[in-house]
Amino acid sequence: MNRINMLISLLLIKVLMAASAGAQSTSSEPPATNVDIHDYIMASSTEYAKIYNADYADARAFMDAAKKFDKSVFHVLLSYLKIEAKNAGLTAVSDENAKQIVAGRLRDIGFIEEKGKWAYKDKGESENVRSRAGPISSQVIEGENTSRASSEYSQEHFENARAGFYRKYKSQKNEILKSQVFREANEWTRNFGEQIGWTIRDWEGKITRISTSHGGEEASLTIESSRDGFTCQYKAVSIFGLDESSIKMGTKVYNQLAEFQEGDYVYFSCNLYEDKEKGIRENSLTEEGSLRVPELVIKFTNIRKQ
After folding, report:
1. CA angle 113–108–83, rounded 5-degree value
2. Dmax (CA) of the chain
3. What are phi and psi of 143, to 5 degrees?
4. Which run of H or of E encompasses 162?
5. Per CATH, is 146-305 categorized as 1.10.3720.10?
6. What per-residue string of b and e applies to 69-97 under the rule 16 or more CB within 10 Å gives b?
7. Domain locations along the chain
8. What is the pLDDT of residues 37-76, one digit of tens each?
C-alpha cells in the first residue's frame, strides 16, 4: 500500500512540475510590440482590401488584431497609430490627441462606443464588397452634353494615374526611390488640381459612411470610387466642429445628404483643398497609405443620385 501511495505521489509531482514548466514557458513569451500589431494590421488590411471596400477592410483587420493579441479594438488601433506616426516623423503627438484620433477613426469606419467599449455596426459582407466603377460615358449634365471618359481632367484619368503611381511605388527596391515616387505623385496631383481650378463636378462613387456629431449639427461623409483594384476615398470629416470640410446643418448638402443612405451610388461635386506637401489635401499618415487608398478631404457642394 505504501508503495502504491509513493508511486501516486511521484506521478502527481511530475504532473505539477510539467504544469509549472508549461506556465513558465507561456509567461516567458515576449508580449506583442506595437510593431507586431502594426505589421499584422497592415498585412490583414491589404488582403481584405482585395475583396471589400477600404473602411470595411480596415475594420476587419482591427477586429482580427484585437482577437489575435487579446486587446481591445481601441488599443490595437492606438498601437497601429503610434507606429504610423513614428514612420511619418510625427513625434509630437500627445497621448490625448492620439486617443481622439483613434476614436474618430473608429467612428469613421463604422464602430460605435457603448459603455466604454467599441462595437462594429456590421452591415454584412455582401454590402461591403468593393464596387468597381464602370466606364464613364457621355451624358447630359445640367443641360450640357459632356464626354468625360476621354478628358485628361476626368475622374477616370485622375484615379488611373494615381493607381499607376501606387504600382510604381510598390515596385521600387528601397525607401529612397519610393519617396521619390511619392513626391512625383504629389506634384502631379497638384498640377491636376490647378488645371481643374480646384473644383470637381459630377464625379461618381458609392456612399460608404455617413455619420453625425454634436447632436446632428454637422455630418461627415465618405464616398468611394473603385476601379481595377484601386480605391479612392472622397471625404468630409467632422473633428470636434473644427474641420472646414464638415457638412453643417441647414446647408444645401446637409439637406441633400438626409435623402441618402450608406450603399447608395451618387454623383458629387466639390471644391478641393490645396495642400503644400501632397498637392490636394489627403488624410493618410504614411506615404504608402496615401498612394494605396487616398483619403482626399474635400468640400462637397452637391450630391445627387445616379
Report:
1. 95
2. 103
3. 90, -5
4. helix 155-171
5. no
6. bebebbbbbbbbbbbbbeeeeeeebeeee
7. 34-127, 146-305
8. 988 988 888 777 767 767 777 888 889 999 899 888 888 8
